[in-house]
Design a protein that fits this description.
29% of the residues lie in helices and 40% in strands. It is an alpha+beta fold. The mean pLDDT is 91. Belongs to the RimP family.
Length: 155
């Protein structure tokens, strides 16, 4: 197993019982390099939304555990946050949570001379994602052709 997956899996293993205890949901854990720095990020959520205090509580517990176990060789920055707007939908639970919500989709290659689509996520399966556009037209897109799908910003 690659380091990245191992770190994510171990962190997830620690966080899951903590999530249950606090009635939170663990949305995702990612270990990524951005602008030359490693980040270990945990995205958490709960009914009604996560607060800064919730993030702080989990961050403190997770940070203490990580210091104690010390299994990550690189120096890294720990971040605990809510999934937030504009975060990509990756897993089934991300899609489930977003049914009925507006999403932005970017395709790798243009479809009818268009790469960007916005609509209400109506359904999905392993192969496709279905959205209903503002004009009421239903659009079925093949998942391998989707570069990015995320909740739309609604200002």
């Amino acid at each position: 197993m690659a380091k990245k997956e191992e770190y994510e899996a171990k962190t997830e293993g620690f966080l899951l019982p903590l999530m249950k205890e606090n009635h939170f949901e663990l949305v995702d854990v990612e270990y990524v390099k951005e602008a030359g720095s490693w980040y270990l990020r945990a995205y958490i959520d709960k009914e009604g939304g996560i607060t800064v205090d919730d993030c702080e509580t989990i961050s403190r517990r997770l940070g203490d555990w990580l210091d104690e176990k010390d299994f990550i060789a690189d120096s890294y920055i720990l971040e605990v946050s809510s999934p937030g707007l504009g975060r990509p939908l990756k897993k089934d639970k991300d899609f489930n949570r977003s049914i009925g919500k507006e999403v932005d989709i970017k395709l790798y290659k243009p479809l009818n001379k268009q790469k960007d689509f916005t609509g209400t996520l109506t359904s999905y399966d392993r192969e496709t994602v279905t959205i209903t556009q503002e004009d009421g037209i239903e659009l079925v897109l093949n998942r391998p052709e989707i570069a990015l799908i995320r909740l739309a910003f609604d200002f």
